[in-house]
């Protein structure tokens, strides 16, 4: 199947005719839907969506491109990534492919190589890739053990400014949670986060005094007006109940800010009654949950010579049914935690549909890489198609779900402010100077 568009109209006002839209991504339009897909003509004017009309009803005098029922999505939100770690695999692979091997490999590489120049070059490469795939909003976690926190946050702030308007960026500080009681370190870290408008994060796990440490986290976040984004229960150990403890701590501290929790894998291994109690607490506390299916299916339940039994995902459907905001994201890219990936939300979505069973039906599935993560990140100007909103759109040749999910959609067209962008992906050879090649 060829691309539906060879060139967009060279006009400030034009029609994208005979488009197929995921209804969950469209605001303010009522139309008959089939598998959550609706048909429409879209009028684009001066870089914005002027109108979303019934197909065949757009003014005939306007320049027009017939999409032949090809899908049109809003640009994507990738809400949990690691731009500072990306693309170090070739110089620091993970020989065991498991979580412990990843920790050791990243620690070695970070301590030896993560200068400002190195981190910036890899971030820039990642953002070029994400932009070409159609992503407009990214949250990254930044390794924040001293002295790396000052190096990486300063680089991030510079990169965020340079990419403003192309890819909007947020950053959360990532550190081993037991270090929160190191007063000098944590005070300095909070100063850096506040100065660079970041979020409090951390890798949480069961440890002595976890309740007290969480109280420090929530109190500090309240005092400094910070939101929170945590790594939680990235394990198949059913005895690990950090998620439940975090929900209880948010309620206990009456924390009013946003709290996002990523991974939450052990929840899927717990007995039904305990899992339900935890899910109810998560919903009551208003936590948002992001699953990272590609990375976790790669890392978890990995044993030499043994076929994995577990998928490495949380109880996604049950959380969603309880009213919890749920999304999926890329996580790591070509580093010891995940050897593959390209920061392509289409790949993330396609794999999440398979791994988490987001299909049958697919009616609202598109939300997990569009409007829901954008809402979690408090950026409702992303992740939807709406009259008056920016014409930041991704055009596909696929007309139906089976077509969309069966191919990589490499022929997609990305529109920003009503104009097509250069979708050329950066060449990996650009990274050779960082690898000593």
Question: What do you see in this structure?
Answer:
By secondary structure, this protein is α/β, with parallel strands linked by helices. It has helices at residues 99-113, 116-133, 148-163, 183-195, 210-224, 242-252, 272-285, 293-299, 316-321, 345-356, 371-376, 401-406, 432-435; strands spanning 13-22, 37-45, 48-53, 64-66, 72-74, 76-81, 135-143, 168-174, 203-204, 228-232, 259-263, 288-291, 325-328, 393-395, 413-416, 419-420. The model has no long low-confidence stretch (mean pLDDT 96).
SSE blueprint:
Blueprint: E1 13-22, E2 37-45, E3 48-53, E4 64-66, E5 72-74, E6 76-81, H1 99-113, H2 116-133, E7 135-143, H3 148-163, E8 168-174, H4 183-195, E9 203-204, H5 210-224, E10 228-232, H6 242-252, E11 259-263, H7 272-285, E12 288-291, H8 293-299, H9 316-321, E13 325-328, H10 345-356, H11 371-376, E14 393-395, H12 401-406, E15 413-416, E16 419-420, H13 432-435
Parallel strand pairs: 1-4, 6-7, 7-8, 9-10, 10-11, 11-12, 12-13
Antiparallel strand pairs: 1-2, 2-3, 5-14, 14-15, 15-16
Helix pairs in contact: 2-3, 5-6, 6-7
EC number: 3.5.4.1
Protein name: Cytosine deaminase
Enzyme class: hydrolase
In short:
By secondary structure, the chain is α/β, with parallel strands linked by helices. The protein contains 13 helices and 16 strands. It has a 5-stranded parallel beta sheet. A 4-stranded mixed beta sheet has the order 3-2-1-4, with no helix packed on it.
């Amino acid at each position: 199947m060829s691309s539906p568009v060879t060139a967009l109209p060279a006009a400030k006002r034009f029609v994208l005719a005979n488009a197929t839209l995921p209804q969950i991504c469209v605001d303010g339009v009522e139309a008959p839907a089939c598998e959550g897909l609706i048909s429409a003509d879209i009028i684009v004017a001066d870089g914005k969506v002027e109108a979303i009309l019934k197909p065949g009803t757009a003014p005939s005098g306007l320049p027009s491109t017939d999409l032949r029922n090809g899908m049109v999505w809003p640009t994507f939100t990738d809400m949990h990534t690691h731009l500072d770690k990306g693309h170090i695999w070739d110089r620091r692979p993970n020989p065991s492919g498991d979580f412990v091997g990843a920790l050791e490999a990243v620690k070695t590489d970070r301590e030896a190589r993560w200068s400002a120049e190195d981190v910036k070059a890899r971030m820039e490469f990642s953002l070029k890739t994400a932009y070409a795939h159609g992503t407009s909003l990214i949250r990254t976690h930044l390794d924040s053990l001293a002295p790396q926190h000052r190096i990486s946050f300063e680089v991030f702030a510079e990169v965020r400014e340079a990419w403003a308007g192309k890819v909007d960026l947020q950053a959360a500080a990532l550190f081993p949670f037991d270090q929160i009681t190191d007063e000098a370190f944590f005070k300095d870290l909070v100063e850096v986060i506040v100065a660079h408008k970041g979020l409090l994060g951390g890798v949480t796990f069961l440890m002595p005094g976890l309740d007290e440490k969480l109280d420090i986290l929530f109190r500090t976040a309240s005092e400094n007006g910070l939101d929170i984004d945590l790594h939680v229960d990235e394990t198949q150990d059913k005895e690990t109940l950090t998620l439940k403890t975090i929900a209880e701590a948010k309620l206990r501290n009456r924390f009013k800010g946003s709290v996002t929790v990523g991974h939450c894998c052990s929840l899927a291994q717990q007995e039904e009654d305990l899992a339900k109690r935890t899910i109810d607490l998560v919903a009551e506390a208003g936590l948002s949950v992001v699953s990272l299916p590609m990375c976790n299916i790669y890392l978890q339940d990995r044993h030499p010579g043994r076929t994995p039994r577990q998928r490495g995902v949380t109880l996604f459907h049950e959380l969603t049914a309880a009213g919890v905001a749920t999304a999926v994201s890329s996580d790591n890219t070509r580093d010891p935690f995940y050897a593959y990936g390209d920061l392509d939300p289409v790949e993330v979505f396609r794999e999440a549909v398979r791994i988490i069973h987001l299909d049958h039906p697919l009616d609202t599935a598109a939300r997990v890489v569009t409007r829901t993560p954008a809402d979690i990140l408090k950026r409702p100007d992303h992740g939807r198609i709406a009259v008056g909103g920016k014409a930041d759109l991704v055009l596909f040749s696929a007309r139906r779900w089976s077509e969309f999910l069966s191919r990589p959609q490499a022929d997609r067209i990305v529109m920003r402010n009503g104009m097509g962008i250069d979708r050329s992906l950066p060449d990996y050879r650009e990274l050779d100077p960082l690898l000593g090649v």
